[in-house]
Structures are given as C-alpha cells and as structure tokens.
Amino acid sequence: MQKDQYRIQTTSYYSSIFTLSSTLKCSYQVLFGFAYSYEGADMPLACLTDFEAHARERLSKSSWDYIEGGADEGITRDDNVAAFKNTSMCKTGQESQEHQSPRIRLRPRYLRDVSEVDLRTTIQGEEISAPICIAPTGFHCLAWPDGEMSTARAAQAAGTCYITSSYASCSLEDIVTTAPRGLRWFQLYVHPERQLNKQLIQRVEALGFRALVITVDVPILGNRRQDIRNQLNLMMNLMQASIHSTKERNSIPHLQMSPISTSLCWNDLSWFQSMTRLPIILKGILTKEDAELAVKHNVHGIIVSNHGGRQLDGVAASIDALTEVVAAVKGKIEVYLDGGVRTGNDVLKALALGAKCVFLGRPILWGLAYKGEHGVKEVLNILKNELHISMALTGKDPLVIYTLVIRSAKVMFAEVKGHTLRTKEEL
Description:
Blueprint: H1 2-24, H2 28-40, H3 48-58, H4 61-68, H5 75-82, E1 87-92, E2 95-100, E3 103-106, E4 121-123, E5 126-128, E6 132-134, H6 147-158, E7 161-164, H7 172-178, E8 183-188, H8 194-206, E9 212-215, H9 225-229, H10 231-243, H11 269-275, E10 280-285, H12 288-296, E11 301-304, H13 318-329, E12 334-338, H14 344-352, E13 358-360, H15 362-394, E14 400-407, E15 410-417, E16 420-426
Helix pairs in contact: 3-15, 6-7, 6-15, 12-13, 14-15
C-alpha cells in the first residue's frame, strides 16, 4: 500500500514538472534543479518571530525560560506585544483570552515624494542610523559563547546605541575593546554602598560610555516563577559559560550576587549628578507623576519601560504608558520606549506617539542565539527595513508620521516632525 501511494505521488510530481516546463517553454531539467535547490535550502528568516522560534529550539529550557520569563502570570509581558496589535491579553487559569483594547492605527498620506527615506536621528546629541537601539539585558553568554562582545560588534556595525547591562557576562573592558567605535550607554542597578556605585560609574566613564541609565523599577526582584523552578539549571548554565570563557575576568559578574538598593529615592539623584558629567537616563518610568519628577530633578531622558513584564505584573503595557509620559515632560527631555516592539510598524507607532527611539530586549537575544553577531545584525536590519517600508507607505516627509489613536472616547491625531510630538485632540 505504501509503495503504491509513493508511486502515485511521485508520478504526480513528475507530471507536474513536465506540464510546467511545457507551459513556461523551458527545460524540465531547469525546473528539477530549481525544485531540488529550493527544497534543500534553508528558508530565510523574514521577521523577528522567526528568530524567536529558532532561539527556542536552540537554547536549553532554563535559558529560554530565563530570557522569556515574566513576573507572576506574565500578563504584562504578553500585553507589551499585544498592545501594539490592538488586543490585550487576559489570563484565566491556564487559558489566555484576547480582547480589544484602545486601537492604534496608521493614517497614510499619499502623493508624497518617498524616493528618499532617511531613518537617521539623534539621541542625547549622538547620531544613530535608525531609531532602533539595544536595551540592557543580562547574561548574553546564555545565548552565544562570547555574549555581549558579539552584541557590541553588531551594534557598532549597525551604527546604533547599545546599553550594556550591569549583569553583562563579559567584562566592560572586553566589550569596549571588541567594538571601540560603538555608541554605548551603561545601565546601573544601584548598590546600597555608595562607594561601589562611584567606582563603577568612574570606570564606565573612563571607558568611554556616553550615558548612565539608572534602572528605577527594581527595588526588589519581581516574582519570576520560571526562574524559581529553574534556578539550579540557570546557575549551572552560567557557571558552564564562565568555565569556557577565554579570560578569567569574563566570569559571572560579581554584581549578580550583589544586593540592589531598596532605599533609592528621588533626592539621591543629585548625588549621582555630582559625581559624573554623563547624562542620566531613568529606565522604568510609567506614570505622569514620575515623569514630572524626572524633569524636576534634571535628568536627561526617560525610558518608558515595565522591565519586559519581569517586575510588577499588571502594570500598563509600555506603548500604553508612553503618551502619558510624553505629555508630562512637555518636550523638555527625551523619551524612549522599550517593551513589545516586534515589527517596523511597532517602531513607527512608538515614534508617532512621542518616543525618540525604541530599545529592543528579547529580540536581540533571539538573534544572538541564532547566529551570534550576524544574527543580531539581521534582527536590526529586518526591523530597519520594515520601518523604511512603513514610513514610505505612510507618506513620510523626513520623519513625518500621521496616526489615528482612539483611547476611550477621545480621538487624537498625532503628527511627528523630527520625532517632536504635536497633538490635536477632539472629544
């Protein structure tokens, strides 16, 4: 039976090839060659979710759970992505349900010259090739042997900013050496002992980092259930990565086991400002009240972020919190966004709602797991190409984007020129 079935399928296949060759007036040998080469070739990765699937296959369960895990039920983690797609996630028991949330829609303008689309912009006075940067994430050695060094090289090649994490699995010196021309900011988890913070800040400043990003949403770690379940496996993976490092100083960062300050307050920011000339960016702001305080305390920028849904579950998706923060700062400081960005359309929506640029977290690690430095480059290039297409199709006028945002009963038309938000509201 199986042989007969195979014979029928094979006959049908050959018949199709000969029929097609006759129709196209070309040699059937050419079509056979095309069919075999296509069947044997690796399919190119077309979008960021393709990299996600590859990373899931290649990484150990504990490493994957660490990268993808969220706090508690993972509602905010999932909502970060869903909010861009005009749905939000509601979990009941083990089931997830989608329901409509406020809609974000692009309003294209046609008959405009889009022969040249320039993605370049600046952050803190430094030019980047596109408003797509790399967020701070820890332990890149879980995804690729030389970890953050590959990430830094990819960022340098792409002409974009890379925020190096306090929990980097490579030394800061090695990261700088491998990508000396790259634009780097440093992310700081504030230690309870001020002297240790001072030493680290002086070190990163001497190494040429161009900004200090203080994470404010981790007075304590969120309740990450998968990390609790996999704690032993995760530690073993980190130790194994350390053992295989080529240099002794590439061992597990000492900060990994260091405490994070639970008493950091607004008034402490003046102490940081007194010891460094680096611009200070606050990462983790989600509300109007905190955004106003950030301006009052003379910080240079805000990253609207919920830590990838890894801290307090149930807070707003980053894109939903963005408009509140942008309105509060009134253009006095730059506002950036991380969380949930998966397409060029997502980048466009964030820019239209007032973000100067977006920062990528998990997708960078997916690219790293796929092909190291080259995988990260591919992730950045795909997103840049998608943004280029979206901008051209909306009718750009160097970074002029029109969006229609429906929030409850309000309709807001947002116009962006050079990433400066101007809005008109109609009730």
